[in-house]
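We close this part of the discussion by returning to an individual protein. The amino acid sequence and the backbone structure tokens for this protein are reproduced below:
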Amino acid sequence: MVVAALCVLVAGASGCGASCDTSDNTPEIYYDGVAKDGEYASSSRLGPFLHFPGGKEYQLVHHLGFAPNRVDIDLAFTVDDERMAASAGNSTEKRCVDEQIIWVKNDTCTEFWILVTAGSPSPTPVPRCNGDNVYVDAGVTPEEVTIDESSTAEASSNDGEAPDAGGPDL
């Protein structure tokens, strides 16, 4: 009883209570990433990255036409910070991955910016992301996907050079 009362008194300073609401929020559907040669990137490695405050959720429409077996999420601390770190813990929960979307959530109260990359088709069938907590559906089939040529023109202009090992050359 005394411990609970003390925790209430110092919740803001001690971390006994949450300082933001990370409960389920309606995900934002994000269409603007680039898919090329079986690889997806939510943005260029130079940014601008996706703003990812506490509780934020994205459904990233990846345009791959298959469920990626590999999804990597890197964290930055500004919109175009070149010093990135691999995400860990609940800083980026992967809520669902299927042939249309990568659904991520920041389940912390910390503000980040993220770069999401994905590729390598899943070797086994993957269920569609449509469980009880899905509020919106990207609703895109591979036949309907059109990639903005202006977003791929720069990536295509490298005269066939292979992208660096860090992901697609965007």
User: Anything to note?
Assistant: The domain at 18-123 is CATH 2.60.40.10 (Immunoglobulin-like). Residues 1-16, 132-170 have pLDDT under 50 and may be disordered. The two ends are 56 Å apart (CA to CA).
